[in-house]
Specification:
126 residues, 33% helix, Glutaredoxin, alpha/beta, single chain, five-stranded mixed sheet
Length: 126
Amino acid sequence: MVTKVDLNGYDEFKRYADALDPKRKKVIFYFSGTKLDNGTSWCPDCVEAEPIVKTFMSQLKKDVIFGYVDVGDRPTWKDMNCPFRTDPRLKLMVIPTIVVWKGVQRLEGSQCTKVDLLQMLFEDDD
């Protein structure tokens, strides 16, 4: 049902996104900070959201691609020229952010911890 893809950094994300078939199933990207040696992100909001998002996605009964995108370490993310911030397709302002690819829906920051908002991303699907 849910196909998980791990993408590390902007270049890997861009290659993957550019190669997506336009007729493909729904693609959701989850943008988060790099994981530290202890397995959690340096971003406290990402640490809070990740278990909620992962649990939701593991229970989802839809045919979607879920891309977990590592945006980099804190200095990389905080740079205003970070490509995740400047890419016109993304224009990320905060992490975590969940984006429905080629759609208008997105959840940012604490919105990513709300199961009802996660469910709304999948309404009106085939």
